[in-house]
Write a structure and sequence with these properties.
The chain has about 240 residues and is α/β, with parallel strands linked by helices. The protein is built from nine helices and six strands. It starts with a strand and ends in an 11-residue tail after the last helix. The chain is globular, with a radius of gyration of 18 Å. It is about 45% helix and about 15% strand. Strand 5 and strand 6 form a beta hairpin.
Length: about 240
């Protein structure tokens, strides 16, 4: 069987003007993952990343620590199917409805770093509306469209894969959530309950034979736990 390693990006810049920037801690997490994979002797036959800077930077920082990997021989392939969903657009599209029940929502989202608990509560509310499919907004990528995009990316991987390939996919929590729904068939709301637990630079492993795919492991972050520094375990 072949293996697909789903790797969530390192910590990004939550609360900053541009979230899509890997933080210094995110680079440390990525290096720790690379060191761990090096110790295990893991060798990737292919490496794929979404288009986002935090995904690509995680890939480069991880692979740089692996003597088994040569970027000239096995470059990072870019596939937009593995981009995260557009969280900012989802929030904006549902803001008017949210303000009707939470008048302070705009202020909380504008100062997310200072209101982490409130941000999470309101973001969860918006996500529940989005994935339900009952509150579609014109011009916004729907949950089903997002699922279809990720499915197409997975199909491309499988169509191009050799039987025993080890493939790394550097992606995001929402994309991993979508793949979980596709592979294990959990309802979208239940999938997102798992999403909130996905650690930065965690590993989830899929096993495949032809077009049959199974979940082998989820959200492993042993590479961070071994360093015995709780600050390395982050979720954004």
């Amino acid at each position: 069987m072949g293996s697909i390693y789903l790797i969530r990006h390192g910590q990004a810049s939550f609360g900053a003007e541009n979230y899509d920037v890997l933080s210094p801690l995110g680079f440390r997490q990525s290096a720790a993952l690379g060191d761990y994979l090096e110790q295990l002797g893991v060798r990737f036959d292919r490496c794929v990343s979404g288009e986002l800077s935090r995904q690509q930077d995680t890939a480069r920082a991880t692979l740089a620590r692996m003597s088994t990997h040569d970027l000239d021989e096995c470059p990072i392939e870019i596939d937009s199917a593995f981009n995260e969903f557009h969280a900012d657009e989802v929030i904006r599209a549902h803001m008017a409805d949210l303000l009707a029940v939470e008048p302070d929502a705009m202020q909380i989202f504008s100062n997310a770093a200072s209101h982490r608990a409130e941000f999470q509560r309101l973001f969860s509310y918006v996500i529940h509306r989005w994935v339900s499919g009952e509150h579609e907004k014109a011009g916004l990528e729907s949950w089903q469209s997002f699922i279809d995009r990720v499915q197409n990316g997975l199909n491309r991987l499988l169509d191009q894969a050799n039987k025993k390939d080890h493939i790394a996919v550097f992606t995001s929590g929402g994309t991993i959530t979508a793949l979980l729904q596709l592979i294990i068939g959990v309802p979208p709301i239940k999938a997102f309950e798992l999403n909130w637990q996905i650690v930065n630079t965690s590993l989830s492993c899929l096993k495949y034979r032809d077009n049959d795919v199974a979940l082998a492991s989820f959200n492993s972050h042993v590479h961070l736990e071994l360093l015995k520094n709780p600050e390395l375990v982050t979720y954004r």
